[in-house]
UniProtKB/TrEMBL annotation, chain A:
The keyword Plastid does not apply. Keywords: Oxidoreductase. It holds the Pfam family CCG. The lineage of its organism: Bacteria, Pseudomonadati, Pseudomonadota, Gammaproteobacteria, Chromatiales. One of its GO terms (molecular function) is oxidoreductase activity. It comes from Acidihalobacter ferrooxydans. PANTHER family: COB--COM HETERODISULFIDE REDUCTASE SUBUNIT B 1. This is Disulfide reductase. Coiled coil: none annotated. It comes from the Bacteria. Residues 4-88, 154-247 form the Cysteine-rich domain.
From TrEMBL, chain B:
The keyword Metal-binding applies. The lineage of its organism: Bacteria, Pseudomonadati, Pseudomonadota, Gammaproteobacteria, Chromatiales. It comes from the Bacteria. The keyword Glycoprotein does not apply. Keywords: Iron, Iron-sulfur, Metal-binding. Residues 97-129 form the 4Fe-4S ferredoxin-type domain. GO terms for cellular component: plasma membrane. One of its GO terms (molecular function) is metal ion binding. Transmembrane segments: none annotated. This is Heterodisulfide reductase subunit C.
Length: 303, 238
C-alpha cells in the first residue's frame, strides 16, 4: 500500500483525542507512513443521512476526492468506524449507481470542490496494519508482552455492517470477516494478551442515541460490559471513538444514576498495541482515557 | 400465528364468556374465547408509495416477511413492541392507524444495521424505520423526536463550517430540547476527562468549542447541499 492519506475525522479531533495520539505514534513506531488530510470535512457521521442520504454520500466522497485529487493518494485510512463505514458506503453507492455518481460529481462542480472519480480505496487502521505488515511484521517490532491480560475485543456495528459495502471482507483465509471479525484479536493475541471468548463483539452500543435516548444506550452498554466481565475480561479493547466514548460515558451513567458498578477498563487497541511496542503510556495517551486503567496495567507489569 | 393477525387479538376485540352455547351446543370451557370479526376499510392504497419517497424507504416493496429483521433487531431485544417486520407489513398494506399505535417508539431505531445486513431481499429495514419516523413528523402526528433534533443540530454545524465539534453539538442539542446544560453524569464524565488531560489538549478543545474548526475549502459547499436537499424534498413530497 505504501503511504496512505490519514483521515482522522471530527471525533479524533475532540473526544477521541487519545485515539488520534496513539494512532500517530503507533504508525510511526511501526515504520509506516501517512499524511493527514489537513482540510477535511465531516463524513456525515450517523446523523446527516437522516436529513438526506445524499448528504452523507457527498460529504464522504468529498473527503476521498480531497485525498486523490488534491494530494494524489489512492488509499484513505480512517481509524474511526463511523468515518470508515461512511466512506465505504459512499464508495459502494457511487460504484453501484450511475445516478449516485453523477449526482456526486454534479454537486462537486457546483460547489467548486474536487470531483470524486471513484479511484480511492478506504481502509480501517486495523486493515492497513494487517495488509501492510501483517502479524509477523508487527510481531518483529514488539518489545514487550501484554502478559496475559484478558481482553474482550469489541468491534461495534459500523466496522462490520452491512457486509455489502465491504468487498474485501469475507474473502477467505487472511481476510477480515464481517460476521466474526478477528483482526484485533489476532494483533493483541500476538502481543501476548489472552483474547476471551466474548459473545457481543459486534453488538450495538447505542452510539446513535447516546444523548437522545440515554436509557437505551446505557442498557446496551451495560449488556456489553457485563457480558465481557462475565466472560472474565479485564479490558474491553476498542477501535472506534464513538464506541469508546459511549462505553465510558454510559459506564459512568450506570454508576452515577443507577448504582451499577463495573470494573472492566476500556482501552483503544492502538494503546494496547503501542504498549507492546514499548511506547510509553503517556505518549499513547492512556492517562487521557476516562477509564482509568493505569492501576491494572501496572498490576499486570505492562507499564 | 401469522403476524397480520396481531391486530385482531387486541383486548377490546376478545370476548370471554363464563359459559357459551353456540347453536344449541355448550362450548363452555376451552372454547369460551371468541374474537370479534372485522372488515378492514381503513387502509391507504398510496401509503407504500409515500414511504418509498422518503430516504431509506425506497425498497420497502421488496419485503417478503421472512422476519430476519425483527429476529436480529437490537431494539426488539429491549422491547418486543419494537417490530420492524410488523411495521413493514402494515406499510405495505397501508394500515396507517395500526402503525400509529407505535408512533412513540419507531424513532428509537439505533441504526446498528443488523436488519439491513441480514435482509435477504435488500429491503434496508433500518431506512424504512427512519422513513416512517420522518413521515410522522412531517404529518405532525408526532413531535420532532430528540434524535431528529440531534440530527438537525449536527447538520447545521456541518452546513456552516464543514465540520462538527463535540461539545458545541452537545450543548446545541440540550438547548434545543430544553434540557439542563449541566447533567450530573456528564459532569462526572467531564471531571474524569479533565483529570489527566494535557494542558495543550485542553486548550485545543476549549478553542475548538469557542471557534468551531472550519474546513477552509468549504466555500459554498454547504449552500449547494442545502439547495439540493430542498429541491429533492420538493420533488418527493411537494
Amino acid at each position: 500500500m505504501g503511504k496512505v492519506a490519514y483521515y482522522p475525522g471530527c471525533a479524533l479531533e475532540g473526544s477521541g483525542g487519545p485515539y488520534d495520539k496513539s494512532t500517530r505514534v503507533l504508525v510511526k513506531a511501526l515504520g509506516l507512513d501517512m499524511e493527514t488530510i489537513s482540510d477535511y470535512n465531516c463524513c456525515g457521521a450517523m446523523e446527516v443521512k437522516n436529513i438526506h442520504p445524499m448528504l452523507q454520500t457527498y460529504l464522504s466522497s468529498r473527503v476521498m476526492a480531497l485525498a486523490s485529487q488534491e494530494m494524489g493518494y489512492d488509499a484513505v485510512m480512517a481509524p474511526c468506524n463511523g468515518c470508515y463505514h461512511n466512506l465505504k458506503k459512499a464508495e459502494y453507492e457511487t460504484a453501484t449507481s450511475e445516478k449516485a455518481m453523477q449526482t456526486v460529481q454534479d454537486l462537486a462542480r457546483k460547489a467548486d470542490d474536487p470531483v470524486y472519480q471513484g479511484d480511492v480505496r478506504t481502509l480501517h487502521l486495523l486493515e492497513w496494519l494487517m495488509e501492510d505488515l501483517g502479524i509477523e511484521g508487527i510481531k518483529q517490532k514488539m518489545k514487550k508482552s501484554l502478559n496475559g491480560i484478558k481482553i474482550a475485543n469489541y468491534y461495534g456495528c459500523m466496522y462490520t455492517r452491512p457486509r455489502q459495502i465491504f468487498p474485501e471482507k469475507d474473502q477467505g483465509e487472511g481476510s477480515e470477516s464481517s460476521y466474526k471479525p478477528h483482526f484485533m484479536d489476532d494483533l493483541l493475541g500476538a502481543a501476548g494478551a489472552v483474547n476471551i471468548d466474548f459473545p457481543l463483539k459486534t453488538a450495538c452500543c447505542g452510539g446513535a442515541h447516546t444523548l437522545s435516548d440515554s436509557d437505551t444506550s446505557t442498557q446496551l452498554v451495560l449488556n456489553i460490559i457485563q457480558a465481557a466481565e462475565d466472560a472474565g475480561a479485564e479490558v474491553i479493547a476498542t477501535e472506534c471513538p464513538t464506541c469508546h466514548s459511549g462505553l465510558e460515558m454510559h459506564q459512568i451513567r450506570a454508576e452515577t444514576e443507577f448504582g451499577i458498578k463495573s470494573s472492566v477498563k476500556v482501552i483503544y487497541f492502538t494503546q494496547l498495541l503501542g504498549l507492546a511496542l514499548g511506547l510509553s503510556p503517556r505518549k499513547l495517551g492512556v492517562h487521557e482515557n476516562i477509564s482509568d486503567s493505569i492501576g491494572l496495567l501496572k498490576e499486570k507489569g505492562i507499564v | 400465528m401469522a403476524i397480520h393477525e396481531k391486530s385482531l387479538i387486541e383486548p377490546e376485540r376478545l370476548l370471554n364468556h363464563e359459559t357459551l352455547v353456540v347453536d344449541g351446543v355448550d362450548v363452555s370451557g376451552s372454547w369460551n374465547t371468541m374474537i370479534t370479526p372485522r372488515t378492514l376499510r381503513d387502509y391507504d392504497d398510496d401509503f407504500e408509495e409515500i414511504i418509498q419517497k422518503y430516504g431509506g424507504g425506497e425498497n420497502v416493496h421488496r419485503c417478503w416477511q421472512c422476519g430476519s429483521c425483527t429476529n436480529s433487531c437490537t431494539m426488539y431485544a429491549q422491547n418486543v413492541q419494537f417490530n420492524p417486520r410488523y411495521w413493514i407489513y402494515l406499510t405495505r398494506l397501508g394500515l396507517k392507524d395500526e402503525i400509529l399505535k407505535d408512533k412513540d417508539i419507531i424513532w428509537q431505531c439505533v441504526s446498528c444495521n443488523k436488519c439491513t445486513n441480514i435482509c435477504p431481499k435488500d429491503v434496508r429495514p433500518e431506512g424504512v424505520m427512519k422513513a416512517l419516523a420522518h413521515w410522522m413528523q412531517d404529518q405532525e402526528i408526532t413531535e420532532k423526536s430528540p434524535s431528529t433534533h440531534f440530527d438537525e443540530v449536527f447538520w447545521e454545524e456541518i452546513y456552516h463550517t464543514g465540520r462538527i465539534e463535540d461539545a458545541s453539538v452537545m450543548m446545541g442539542f440540550f438547548k434545543r430540547t430544553n434540557q439542563p446544560l449541566v447533567q450530573e453524569w456528564l459532569m462526572v464524565f467531564g471531571q474524569r476527562m479533565m483529570k489527566y488531560m494535557p494542558v495543550a489538549q485542553m486548550i485545543k478543545m476549549g478553542l475548538n468549542y469557542a471557534i468551531t474548526p472550519r474546513t477552509k475549502s468549504w466555500g459554498k459547499t454547504g449552500e449547494v447541499l442545502k439547495a439540493y436537499v430542498e429541491e429533492q424534498k420538493e420533488v418527493a413530497h411537494g
